[in-house]
Structure formats: structure tokens, C-alpha cells
Amino acid sequence: MTPDNAIRPDKAGIPHTVSSEPFDPHSVEQLSPEQERYFLASQWKMMWWRFLRHRLAVVSGIFLLLLYAAIFVCEFLAPYGTETRDHKAPYAPPQALHLFDQGQFIGPFVYGYDFKRNEITLKPEYAPNPAKVEKLRFFCPGEKYEFWGLFEGRLHLFCPAENATLHILGTDKLGHDLLSRLIYGARVSLTIGLFGVTLSFLLGIVIGGVAGYYGGWVDNLIQRLIEVLRSLPHLPLWLALAAILPKNWSALVVYFGITIILALLDWTGLARAVRSKLLSLREEEFCVAAQLMGARPSRIIGRHLLPSFMSHLIASATLSVPAMILGETSLSYLGLGLRRPIVSWGVLLNNAQDVDTVVLYPWLMAPAIPVILVVLAFNFFGDGLRDAADPYK
Amino acid sequence: MFAYVIRRLFIMIPTLLAISFLIFVIIQAPPGDYLSTVIAECQSRGESGCEDKMKFLQDEFHLGEPFIKQYGYWVWGLLQGDLGYSFEYQLPVSQVVGDRLWLTMIVAFATVLFTWIVAFPIGVYSATHQYSLSDYAVTFFGMLGLAVPSFLLALVLLYLANVYLGISIGGLMDPQYIDQPWSWGKLHSILEHLLIPTLVIGSSGTAAMIRRLRANLLDELHKQYVVTGRAKGLPPGRLLLKYPLRMSLNPFIADIGSLLPELVSGAVIVSQVMSLPTTGPMLLQALQSQDMYLAGSFLMFLAVLTVIGVLLSDLALAALDPRIRLGGGAMK
Q: Measured between CB atoms, which of B14, B26, B149 is closest to A240?
């Protein structure tokens, strides 16, 4: 083509108006720096932006982060140890925190209790005594503890006034401080879900990966196995498995035993997701290329196939944490899960077995509140992650 | 359809066999067995004839034999309707279990009904009124229903029902009706006592169902044919009922499959709290004392219940949706 044919009347005499200059798209559409940032952002960055738009998920994420940070410093946060008993205060009701006494500002304090045993029912009775103003101390030396069993410490975030006791959430039958036990219980209850999910994540990826990548009879076999596991009611099976754990195992071993039990029935959903994705992905060119270059199946699955939908997997794993936490709570509540002296929220709730408890000592049900909050937070957080997992939608 | 039913029934056989094997492995797994406990007790009391007793028990229940043989005997018995023998109650399992199985099925059935009746209108409402205040409220309560441990809900509701409705605590009927012949009073009492277990067991299932129905219906509502229908002047109620709702019903029925295992799990824990004469307390007790045939037959019963539930939901789906009974849906 010659340059002079740009504007050339054709046979009908209408001028041809296509310019022969090379077309520069930027001349038409100028990208603002903001748009440019958006279009050039990496996948993970876009997920992050998208996640931030889900307010509830962000708040839940921060809440969970704080809780998980707290389990590192339980000893510091809790005013008492888990086995410390206040012999003078069995079944003490929660002490309300006050700021003002008779119109005067004092700072956070509680009224001390007058203890009396009911002569007929023998039930302990407590009456707050307005004369006993017991001011809380902060960053104070209190009960001795061994920090992570490594070194001794005495520093607490807050402790009772000198020669006084402090039970903000009340005590149980033996006089254990409920708030302290609740704080320590977080350590077990929160981590058991994470470990369990990690385990079921591994199981799901490996088993689902094998089924999806190889297909054929392997796939068929695994599919049937998953179907069987899914058609079984979880709790009775958990119970049966938990009944296998020998009674003389140490606390730590029982803990891992329960984690494994929880994970054993949970991996099926994830394995299904992995399988169905792999079934379609293994036909892609990049996968065939990797095969021709002689990569081993484990490398192809792990290096080339899984990363393409890792974000989805992480989101669905997050959504299965609450089921694990509730599972642990239910098992321990029924007495077949964790056992004393381990302190977990389920073990604490084990004290609230019957309606009498609801009537007489309602504060023993307090450990349910963190359970509900954490489960809710994980659900919202997982929802946000799931929405963010596919930022191109 | 007939071919589909036959195919579906054939799939059940290996599934049930696998389940029974799994269950047998689990109930056999604890170290030691009931027999050794009995012998130890017998010897510690210094009774004579321990050897004979052991021999008798061994012969009767094949206790000393290899694992596979024991499994074979158990399954063979199950096939003939013989559930085995409960060591602890010293009765055949079928006699110990008796009415409990029926009661469990009644509770499960009532709960499925409850879940549907509640989830259906609420799900439809919150989907058609997306992002309204009531939609948020429903979503919030749904989330809460998923998050509250069921035993806790049971405890609190039991207390409330006792205080405000005057329903006696625990059990499935008022004490005066136990072991009485059936009467209207008894039926009424049972229905009254079914209220709370149904509410508690159904709460998480209902919440999940509402969320799923809402999501499905929302997907359908944004499709072209709905717009077309509306543009052609169909009244909104008719438009909703006739097309999108029917489409979103599929997962509703398919859900029985996943709902039943959840219900049974919930039923175990709730019946423990509420001392309902259903399966929960007995299963727990049997598991703790290694009463293996009782526990095994129980687990097997629960599994069969869910497998049949899944079968029924699959058949209903196939009847409703020709794509499933004609295509490869069954293979997926």
C-alpha cells in the first residue's frame, strides 16, 4: 500500500476516511494513574482490595487476629491460674465492675462478697457488701505462673485488690475462677480448629488431587469412599472414635487424638472440590506440557495445578473451622472429648449439664459466648475470603 | 425412571457394606473387650466357673475369633434381622432398642418437616426482598442459628418452656403417660414435648437451608426469562411461583441427603441433654462401656436411616427433574 491511497475517492466518489497513521490506543483512552494501578495489580492484591470491601469480614478478621494473639499471653491476661481454687467461694456469682462509689469516681472496682451458707439448703449465698470497695490493680504482681513452662513470672494485666479476690465471671463448684479458665481455654479451643483444618486440608488436597489427576478406577474408589463418609452422621461417629482413645493417655496426646478424629471426617468436602477442579485442569495445555517435559505427578499437581485455585481452597478451609470448634465443644460437653485437667471451652461447658445449672448458676454457661462469637467471626471471615477469592468476577 | 431406581438401589448395596465394615472396625478398635472385663470381674469376686462362663460367652458371640469372622457373623445376623446381643442389658439388642428407633425416626421426621415449613417462606421472602431490613435480620438470625451450640440452645429453651409453657423437663411425654395406652392426652403431651427437640435440632439445618434457598432463588431471579415474564405482564406472585421457585426447589429436595446426617448428629446431643428416650443417651452409654453390638447396631441403624434418606431425596429429585434421571447425573 502506498501512503497516498489514504484519502482516495473510490468508484462511487465517496472519500475513504481511514487514516493510515499507526493507531495508538492511548490517544483515545487515557488511563488515569488510579485505573492503571487497578489494571496492573497482581491477583493477590486484587483479592486484598476486594476483601477490604467486605466490612464485616474485616472486622471479624481483626477480632480473630486479636484472639489468636491473646492465646500467646494467657498467663499475663488471666488473673489466676487454671487450677487455683478459691476455697471460700464455691459457685460465687459474677462480680459486677463499677466505676463510681456513692457518686465518687474511684476507677474500676468491685464490691467484696459476704459469704453465707443457707442453713436449710446448704447452698452458698453471696451478697455484695457496699462497705468493701476493692479496687482493681493493673500491671501488678499477682499469682505466680510459669510462662509457657519456660520461666516464672508474676506480672498480670490486672489483679484483685490486696487480700481480696476477684471473680468477674464467677466461680465453679470447686472455686476455680471462670474468667481465667476461659482465657486459658481459648488456647485449646482455638488451636484445635486450626490444627484440625490443617490436617483435613492436607488430606483433602492429597486424596482429592490423586482422584482428580489419575481419574479412572482410583477416582471411582475415592468417590465411593467419600460418599460413604458423607452419608454417615458425624457426631455419633466422632463419639465412637473418641471412645477408642485410651483413658490413660496424657492430656497432650488426647488433644492430638481429638484433632485427628475431627479431621478424619472433614476432608471429604475439600477433596471433592479439588477433584472436580483437577479433572478439568489436567486437560489444559500447560499441564500436558509439564507432563511431556517429564515432571512427576506430585510436582504437576503441587506446582502447576493447585496454585490456580488455592484461594478458593483457603476460603473453604476457613469456613470449616467453625464446624471443628463446635465439634470439639460438643464432644467435650458429652464427656468423650477432651478431659480435665485440659481446659477448653467445651470442658468448661461440661459443668452446665442440666437445667438446674441454668436456673441456679447461669454464669457457668459463659464459655458459650466466646464459642458463639468465634464461630460467627469465622463464618463472616470465610464469607469475605470466598467473595474475594475470585477477584475477576 | 425404572432403570434409574434399579441403578440407584444397586449402588446402595456396596455403600451399606462399606459402612457396616467401617462401623465394625470402629467398635472393635478399643483395646480389650467386654468379655475380658466380665472375666476380670468374675475372677476378682473369686467365683467359681469363670472358665465355663468365658467359654460360653466365647462360643455364643464368637468373641475370641478372628476379626473378619466376627464381622461376617455380625453382618449375617443383621441381614436376618438379628441385631446382636447387648452385654450390658443382657437382652437382645432389638428388645433394648425397641421403641427408641421409632421415636428417633419420629423426631427426625418432625424436624425435617419443621425445617421445610420454616425455611421455605423465610428463604423466599428474604430473596425477594434482598438487602431489606428483614433480609438482614433473617441472615443474622440464620448465622446465629449456625453458631450456637445445640446443647446450649436445648438447655435454655427447656428452661424457658418449663417456666412459660409449663412443659415438664426431659422425656418425650408427661410422666403420668409413660407406659399408658395411647390416648389423645398422651398424643398431645408428646406433640408438646416434640416442640423443643424439633426446634433445637432443626435450628442449624433451617439456617443453612434458608441461606441456600435465598442464594439459589437470587440466581434465578436475575435470569432473562423472569424479566421476559414480567415484561409480558405476569403478576409478580404467579411469576415467582411458576418459574424461579420451581427451579430453586431442586436443591431443597437434594438437601435431605445432607440434612439427615446433621439431624441425627443433633438428635444425639440434644436427646442427651433433654434425656429424651431416643438414641443419644443409650449410644453414649454403649460406647463408653464397650457394649459393642448395641453400639454397632445403633450406628448402623443411624447410617441406614441416612442412606435411605439420601435414596429418597435422589428419587424425588429424579421424579422432579428429567435431566437427572435421563442423563449422567447419577454418576456424578
A: B26
